Amino acid sequence: MRHVVSSDATVLPLQVQGPADGPVVVFVNGLGMTTGSWGRVPELLADRHRVVLYDLRGHGRSANAPAGDYSLEAHAQDLAAVLEEVVPDGQAVVVGSSLGGGIIVVHARDLGLDRISGVVFAGSGGSGVTAPGLARDLPPVARRMLRRVWLYVLRLVAVVANRVKPIVPLADWLVRQFAFEPGAPKDAVAQVREDFMGSRRVPLARTTLASVSTNGVQYASALTVPTLVVHGEHDPEVPQEEIDELMPKLADGELVQLPGAGHMVALTRTEETAEQIARWVRRVRGS
Hints:
Elements: E1 3-5, E2 11-17, E3 24-28, H1 41-45, E4 50-54, H2 72-86, E5 92-96, H3 99-111, E6 116-122, H4 140-164, H5 168-179, H6 186-197, H7 201-212, E7 227-232, H8 240-246, E8 253-258, H9 265-268, H10 270-286
Helix pairs in contact: 2-3, 4-7, 5-6
């Protein structure tokens, strides 16, 4: 398996499939997820596209950050390292799910778009985990105190999650509340449950803490490339208000609403998500 080494020596294994001369599509996972959270979407695209997947630092098969840095800026550096490896002289369409959208926005803000020709948000509003969003509006001292408490709570939740894991019905109920629409397939729920509840505690907590400290929508104007937003009508993590705030900030944006869909559109609306990504690749290449 290929791998890349990020700017701070974090090692990120890559999964690459599809024709070598196909347009490159890079997937950026959500918080606590692995590459399995994309379901069959990469497989459906791999006949005509060069599909690249990697786990976020501290997630899945990727290594922990040597210096413990799980800021969104560090995650953006990881994306930059992946792009340098797979499109050293070209560009890719980058697809982000949930927190992955926030990582893409921070990359655009800090590192530019030289290697990115287009963006797709699949179950993302370009921000990170929004709760407790009030942390952004408090005075600095109160904000620091809240973040310390939040970090402790996240670590506690991670411990509890691993203990709840054997209680499958309860674990699945929790996952459904935060990630899915009513009636979502059991195998999709099981994928998210296994990913999130199998996450390493410190990377999960610190990445979440970093995401609540960054309002990605605020920097969305940095996305000057064509950007497609695929949004589930019943997404419990990305409310319609966030989408309404995001769209006017995009220089060249398009919104596709999926009626009845929840947050994990790649797992529950697999064919539609793959078709939208493929359409956007064609649109970007045509322009």
